[in-house]
Write a structure and sequence with these properties.
single chain, alpha+beta, Jelly Rolls, Cyclophilin, 2 domains, seven-stranded antiparallel β-sheet, seven-stranded mixed beta barrel, 4 helices, 16% helix, 33% strand
Length: 316
């Protein structure tokens, strides 16, 4: 085993280091962060045979370009419909390939998707913060954002023999037209006709979109109660409605508490596809009961376990 050294020659906004997340810190007001698309992050690690919490790079539509200064390492990219270009040769996302000294790797947006993940067969050297390298986008705390001129070291590299390999693209990786939601926990603050609007009308993702959340464009959802509820813990996927009656879906870097009412919450396993929607794309919300949501999560978890196990056998 040896090390590989990379230079960052270009990095767009919201390109950050992430691992599986900073668990157990929300009670101290520290967001969990971690990957926006947790399922694609898990896939890229499994494809290399890495532990599931290995540090990786989350790439936004701004893209990333690296030059390998020395060494050799196998890497994988999964998430969205991005383009991977190695020394001028195009590959789709969802690929495993090996780079060597002098190679240039560019990861660019394709026809669909907002987030993709680059992982290495080795240990990406990133300093942790509070036990995790996951980067909190608004502050940059954690491993941090990538920037041109930066160098990256991958220690204890591994190399896979053979040509580039494809990672199977599962159906659930694509952005959905509809996502299931559980109403509440503050749906009582909204008139029945307002809830019906949420479930009947399509909503488009706005340009106000980052790792903390995305504001939606569509019919207003005015609360029918004073906005004086006490702050309370917030769950990822909550659809929070502010005083201007505009809903916001809270994502990986969401705050730990908030005082605006949450009209509904997206089922957790459906968030991975939701975040692959781009600004101006539309989505519909479908209400399910809490029991139905548990069934959706269990079914998806069973499918995901089989899928990841198959990838681990490829990456072993």
């Amino acid at each position: 085993m040896s090390d590989a050294l990379f230079a960052v020659t270009a990095a767009g906004p919201h390109v950050t280091f992430q691992d599986a997340g900073r668990a157990g810190m929300m009670r101290f007001g520290v967001p969990t962060s971690g990957p926006m698309d947790r399922a694609s992050f898990a896939a890229v690690q499994a494809a290399l045979g890495n532990p599931p919490d290995t540090a990786a790079i989350e790439i936004s539509p701004g893209g990333l370009t690296l030059t390998c200064l020395e060494g050799e390492v196998t890497l994988a990219v999964a998430g969205g419909g991005f383009q991977v270009v190695l020394d001028g040769v195009r590959h789709g996302a969802w690929t495993v390939l090996t780079v060597r000294t002098g190679a240039e790797l560019a990861i660019r947006p394709g026809f669909w998707g907002c987030w993709t993940y680059l992982a290495f067969a080795g240990a990406l050297q990133v300093a942790p913060w509070l036990g995790s390298v996951s980067t909190h986008g608004p502050t940059g705390l954690g491993g941090g954002r990538l920037a041109a001129g930066q160098t990256l070291t991958v220690a204890e590299t591994r190399r896979r023999a053979g040509p580039p390999a494809r990672i199977p693209l599962p159906a659930w990786a694509r952005p959905p037209n509809e996502v299931p939601v559980v109403l509440g926990p503050q749906d009582r603050f909204f008139a029945p006709e307002t809830i019906a609007t949420l479930l009947r009308e399509p909503y488009a993702l706005s340009e106000a979109y980052d790792r903390m959340g995305v504001r939606l464009r569509g019919p207003a959802l005015p609360p029918n109660a004073a906005m004086d509820m006490p702050s309370e813990p917030i769950a990822r996927g909550s659809i929070q409605v502010s005083g201007d009656a505009v809903p916001t879906v809270l994502l990986a870097d969401h705050q730990s508490t908030g005082g605006y009412p949450k009209i509904a919450t997206i089922v957790s396993t459906s968030l991975d596809g939701f975040v692959q929607l781009r600004s101006r794309q539309s989505v519909a919300f479908r209400a399910v009961s809490a029991q139905e949501a548990v069934g959706i999560v269990r079914s998806r978890d069973a499918v995901s376990r089989r899928y990841l196990q198959g990838l681990r056998q490829l990456g072993a």
